[in-house]
Design a protein that fits this description.
By secondary structure, this protein is of the alpha/beta class. The protein contains twelve helices and eleven strands. Strands 3, 4, 5, 6, 9, 10 and 11 form a seven-stranded mixed beta sheet that branches. Strands 1-2 form a two-stranded antiparallel sheet. Helix 2 crosses helix 5 and helix 6 crosses helix 11.
Length: about 325
């Protein structure tokens, strides 16, 4: 790259780290006063620094907006790059600490509900039993929310589904499909019937997320393929705790990921049970994903490798029917 041939590139080289940090905070907060506070600056000093940045790069980066300020398109573009630089420096600091201390580091993992129980939790259990000094933060959310947090740098990687529009920004590695089961409370009237029909199911309340979510679309497509309409009584919720409470206290039905079913409905000490109704309910394949341009810190790479090792063992068990212990590499 020839810096001298492009005056904009040459000017950008003159920016200092405090300039970039202030720009990143202005973009994150939308307020100069709060950005200045986060940077340890007085607001007048932050205002002068914004003017200094404009003088260095030769472009107007902000303009007055009432009593506040608004980044110009050029300013927003530069601020987004400044945010990325700040994230990379944070990752670099973590890499250096991990390299000096060995297998040590803090990992930020995201997952949709099913894989958080079937894949993330067993690997965390292994971490607790090992001598590795790795701490882990787990966020359970929808795939859309996880994609946003991975791209913003708040998560190292996640387990879920990446929409086609974001595929070119992610490194994705497949894991498998996500089968569902139908769960009710113990003592539900349907469980007393010798045979349960689809009409019996559709007469009950159903607990699902809204119809735009992948789980709801899967259930509605399954019903339509069998020639049935959507449930007449449908409580839309994305809260897992609310779903469990409603299942416990009402005669509602909830389609839940198979790992959730196995954790809650197959335990006789729990107030839930799976309906003995054979279904082919399977949500489309999911996998792990992280920013394409990001280098995972050693601790995060180690946890991700453990998850994929476990996924491989589970796939072998499913085909061979022979349990085999999985180990964290």
């Amino acid at each position: 790259m020839n810096w001298r041939s492009d005056p904009d590139l040459a000017n950008l080289r003159l920016l200092k780290m405090p300039h970039l940090r202030l720009l990143a905070e202005v973009l994150a907060t939308g307020r100069l006063g709060l950005a200045a506070e986060r940077c340890g600056l007085a607001q007048p000093a932050a205002s002068r620094m914004m003017g200094e940045i404009e003088g260095v790069i030769g472009h107007k980066i902000h303009e007055r907006d009432g009593r506040g300020l608004r980044l110009t398109p050029a300013g927003a573009a530069l601020a987004r790059r400044a945010q990325r630089i700040q994230l990379e420096l944070m990752d670099a600091a973590r890499d250096m600490a991990a390299a000096e201390a060995g297998s040590v580091g803090h990992v930020r993992v995201g997952s949709v509900t099913g894989p958080s129980l079937s894949h993330v939790m067993p690997v965390l259990r292994q971490l607790r039993q090992s001598d590795l000094g790795i701490t882990v933060e787990v966020v359970v959310a929808t795939s859309d929310a996880l994609c946003e947090q991975v791209l913003s740098g708040r998560l190292d990687f996640a387990l879920g589904r990446v929409p086609a529009s974001l595929r070119d920004q992610m490194t994705v590695q497949g894991i498998g499909n996500e089968p569902l089961g139908l769960v009710v409370r113990r003592g539900h009237p349907l469980l007393l019937q010798p045979r349960i029909t689809m009409d019996d199911l559709l007469r009950q309340d159903w607990l699902m997320s809204d119809e735009e979510t992948l789980l709801a679309k899967t259930v509605l497509r399954w019903l339509a393929n069998a020639g049935h309409p959507p449930p007449r009584r449908w409580v839309a919720t994305s809260s897992f705790l609310f779903t469990l409470a409603m299942l416990r206290d009402t005669d509602a039905i909830a389609p839940l990921a198979r790992p959730v079913v196995e954790s809650f409905a197959n335990d006789v000490s729990m107030p839930y049970v799976e309906i003995p109704f054979v279904t082919d309910l399977v949500v489309e394949a999911y996998g792990s994903f992280h920013r394409r341009d990001a280098i995972l810190p050693p601790a995060a790479a180690r946890v991700l490798q453990g998850i994929h090792t476990l996924a491989g063992v589970m796939a072998e068990q499913a085909t061979e029917g022979q349990p085999r212990p999985a180990t964290l590499a």
